[in-house]
Please model this.
Amino acid sequence: MIPKEVFKKIHRIQITTSRMVTDVLAGQYQSVFKGRGMEFDEVREYTPGDEIRAIDWNVTARMGHPFVKKFVEERELTVMLLLDASMSCRFGSVDKMKNQLAAELCSVLALSAIQNNDKVGIIIFTDKIEKFIPPRKGHRHVLRVVREALYYKPDGKGTDIAGALQYLNRVTKRKAITFIISDFFDEDYKKLLSISNKRHDIVAVTITDPREVDLPNVGILNLGDAETGEDITIDTGDAGFRKQYKKDALERIAQRKKLLRSVNVDNIDIYTDAPYTKELIKFFRTRERRLA
Model:
């Protein structure tokens, strides 16, 4: 039984995101993803006008005359949400923490999928797999996905994107539109990301808080790394330190973008101090133009 206050929050987010899905993303999701996938149907004899690249050379050699592979458009897609629930995502310096924003993004994407009659599932991960809800259809199923995204209490602290991708490849046999929603505070995931993107259509949704890029002058601060437990003391009154901090942060972001480009993974950059609607629309429109 869902507590009343929890149900109210889920309902409030559902109303907000449903309005956005209907008013803002209507048609965008469908034009970008629907009908883009093709699945094998059968092999048939070659007829004049068929494309040469469609020839199945193995069957042709076996039968002694040309055969081609026939494909049909995939009408039903699977959307998988890979949600980072690590300690570094439980941080925020403005209205929303990163994990709260991530949960709302899950809601928007899940509702977009269900509205288009697609299946949606979720993998919640830290440095281990925390929760897996297999992809299904239906309104009640989406509410469960949203509820888990909002209120699941993880055991792990760290981030293992490669492990999450390995698990995705193991439990999802068909091609899936896969959104990785994370701050990407991790290393050594490039190889698995490249392999997984050949099987699935992966989109990286990167979430950043402004204080992870730009520090204010508030004097001496004692900080703790949420994932490693390491404590450090910094002097934000030191202009040189603040400048180097920003330089390092921007370089980290640039390296992350370079890595994603190198494996042909699309990226949506989300900041906790700015509306995410604009960035979602920008992504859908850019991708739509590219696929046209």
